[in-house]
Fold:
Amino acid sequence: MKSILFVLLLLFGQIAIAQKELVITETQNFFGTSVSDKLQIYEVAQEMSFEDFLKDQKRFTPRKMENRLENLDFTTSTFFVEFSIKNETSNAQELVLETARPITNLVSLFLFVDSSIVYSGDAVPYDQKDIKTSVSALPLVVPANSQLKYILRIASDGENVTLPMTFWNKSDFEYRIVSKRMISGLYFGIFLFALFIYMTFYILLRERLFLIYVGYVFFSGFLQFSLHGYLHEYLATSGGYWTQHSILSIAGLTIIFALLYAKNYLEFEGKKKAMSHGLIGLSILLTLTSLIPGKTYEIAYPLINGLSFVALIFVLIAAIIQRKSKNVSKLFIIGLGALVIGGAIFILGNFGLIDNPGLTQRSLTVGTLIELLCLSILMVRRFKTLQEEKERAQKLLVNELEESNVRLESEVADRTKEIEKQRILLKEKNDDFVASVMYAKRIQNAVLSNEKKFKSILPDSFVMFRPKDIVSGDFYWVETIPSTKIWPQGLTVYATADCTGHGVPGALVSIIGNNMLKLGKLDEKVQNPGQMLDFLNLEINEILNSEFVDENIRDGMDITLCAIDIATNELHFSGAQNSAYIVRSGELIELKGDRKSIGFIDGDEVHKFSNQVFDLKTGDVIYTCSDGYADQFGGPKDKKFMSKRLKRLLVEIAPLSLVEQKERVESEFDEWRGNTEQLDDVLLIGLRIT
Structure:
């Protein structure tokens, strides 16, 4: 029933409505020129379909269009144009109607004969347009010797709507589109070339003005790209919100970068600078406002258009005023003037004050191109000037450097002579010092026990001794004590000592410690290792902290003292901060020393060192050491070797011969240390009970 009613309305409309007839004859036609001024237009202040318009058409009053490029202002209305085409030729006419700007939301054409509708506009997905092109174009086919009636519908959501009604022969339209694409390719190629060149200039010079200019060229070109319909054709093809509304955001960003460029190039000061900041702030606000759909977007459209013209006029006037005082280039004024004139013609055409569609549609494009060329030449000159200034500065710097080099060469020669004298003197002193230390090493070796003496008394043993420096703070001592009433068979006594520090200070303490051990051996009151450590503690403290010296010395030693009764295989042990390790049948037994060092007595209380007795068995291996091995940094994570890892190593090597044990502990130490500096003296003694 609804479709029947619609057909009746169409029939009624054909009879009742006065149609404007466009005639095609064998000798004349209306192709290639807008016929808007020959037609009438209906305006409906709301969105309306063809069907609703035909139902309520009597309520609306048409008006005759006055111009070939009719300006319909910034609007959200829906417009309808009725016309008929009479083909008096003997051939069917394939036509294309080019109408409305490419950024118009919806352009559709209704044919009364079969109620068919064809579509264009940026609200329509690009692949659904009946003619795949950037402009608003609609196809028509008028059979030979016939007359067809149409209604054109145009809808917008706030942008400025202009209405040319230009009909083209299909082949002529296709040729025109091809030509337009070639010209557009050249036109936008200039923008791309400028972007590449001036981005390169910015990278080379790092001057902010070039980067701002790149931004302006990009958004100015992108604005033209969008106005020509290429944004919808190539980028935002879906016809969604961004396709329909991005034009305002792009226009706003173009204004912002234009003002930034002008402010920096013209070096605005005072009121001009304040006004430019105000315009930039307003542009940012309107650009953000344009992203909000509805009434806000509708209001932003004319405001951004008006603001762009105001900004151009402001910059042009400011450039003319500053031309003499700041030597503003004529090219800047010419380029800006061309853009202002082009924009003015475009706006006057939009308001219907200039009735020349070809001129008004191209004026802004040509003005933008002239401005781009003028400003690009201007920026090339600026680049050349900056390069020349840079070269002059470099030349001046080179001259200054040459002069400085001459002075420096003279000063360096004098300093080199002085340094050479100091080097020779320092070498002499260093050689003397090294010679002294080497002689001290000879004295230390002569005074202290050595490995040869150690193995002569305890043949089934090894000594790993690695001083950090030439002389060492670690030392070992071995002696045999003749038979006494307490030990009829005598004792073999040996010590593993670690004096405070290393190098020369440690070596001095080691000499003292060695001598005190020899004295203790002769003291009748010393009957076991514990008493020997008590003796050492008192004597070394007396030597280092005499009442006749002004400064106490907190030096001494950590020591392990072992005395072996050969007859009973008893081990008498005492330790100051150090332990003795006994490996028996794959297990490690630790004899812990007292947690007290030798050599410093705090107050009147004197520590008494304990004496431990341990029954040895054949095959037991006794290990004593300083802390240098366990404290050495290295390994994959550059950490300490640690006593726990050392104990595992001792258990592992105990079954080997003493020669093999020494090789193993030395290779393990070297592998762990790697390229890390040795931190302390290293002393490790192994002894097997046979």
